[in-house]
Amino acid sequence: MTTLRDSQPAQEPPAGVVVREGVYGGKVAAIEPGGADFIPLGERHGRPRGLLWTWTSPNLEFATIFLGVLAVAGFGLTFWQAVAAIALGSGLGALAHGVLSAGGPRHGVAQMVLGRLAFGHRGNALPAALNTVAGGIGWFAVNSVSATLALSTLTGLPKPLCLAVVVAAQVGVAFFGHNLVHAFERYAFPVLAVVFAVASAFILSKADFGAAAPDGSGPGGLGGFLIATAASFGYAAGWNPYAADYTRYLPPDTDRRAVGLYAGLGVFLGCTLLQIVGAAAVTIGGDALGDPTGTFTGHMPALVGDLTLLAITLGAVSANAINIYSGSMSFLTLGLRLPLPVRLQRAFVALVFGVVGLVVAYFGLADAGHSYEAFLLVIAYWIAPWLGVMFADMFLRRGADAGAPADARMFDPGHRNPAGPIAMAVAMVVSITLFSNQEKYVGFVPEHVPAVGDITFVVGFVLAAAGYAVLRRVPALAPRPAASAPASG
Question: Major location, coarse class (predicted)?
Fold first, then answer.
């Protein structure tokens, strides 16, 4: 591992910033070396507009469609109420994604490494561990299930065999790393866009936009609207902890506004459009929750339905290539060292996550829809407090490091900022205890006032942001200055 010293050129980051080893550049058919360290300036490449398809492609999948189905068939909304909830929730998640993505080129590190500024080196283990499990295993399993069901429906092959094929494809992309992930999303984009555009045209042509919510479909009203908004936010914000992972290779002088715009727009378009189509599909009729994939494709001609099933499989691979890659980056951010050369650790972790995710997905095949709803809301529960701390820290540090290409505190094991993990943990406990609204646990407030729906993510964000701003002023909890020569990152 290489650490920059004062003898390096002035344009390089300061002493103490750990630099990723190896030569990679723009090579696609090569295993990305190193782990979660600073990307050398000579290795930077790419343009902001590439982020549009990087973040649109992984959302062009059936998991996105099914979330729109849930808004009507599961949460009891009419089509237009669902559209409003989808746009609001997805918009908030996309906005956060754009802001976080914009910091990648200047800092040159993964999103969870950036989090060490707000959480401290050890305290950052809280969000990094959650993201490792949620992305590398949770989202991986959820998307693998939707791809497996689509492939099995199309081919008639056994679901376990289809699952193995899907997992092998997505792990293969993530194994090679950053450049192949971007390339895969770029080439998958036109295929997914065309197929889903045709499928959407058939759905929208048959939809009854003025239909009432299905009988017995859910709470409806304000409560259903807030639950649907929370689910859409959780889906879009589920990408937020990955944001800088895919912008850190861009040159440091890249236009930050362009980076944020293309990244945020990709998330918003991919999430919003297909969720709306999913909501429209429910108004046509059929068993949208019992057989979501078959019912959706049953509304279109056989050829288009078959192409849609293929696109659903491809879209899930697009999503999981990102989930596995970023999940492995979060794992490396924990600081755990494997008995392998540094250049191979990320690739090895991606393979391990593939095996674990395969097992989790296999046991989730029987109840994909119900488990998916609960998982979406859980995602929002931890990400919203994390965002609260991150944005509060960015606001409080504004202008302090405007000219620095990187911050040595991100690689200093002695850097402490206990206000971050404390604020996040307290916000999670309070917001979930009082406002959670799930089948297995209903918080105190929605239990007594059902119209509240699920505002856990709003409460969690506000509590975490305010708590961090207050705790950071306490001398014992204030950030400690970085050591002059950290050991490693």
Answer: membrane
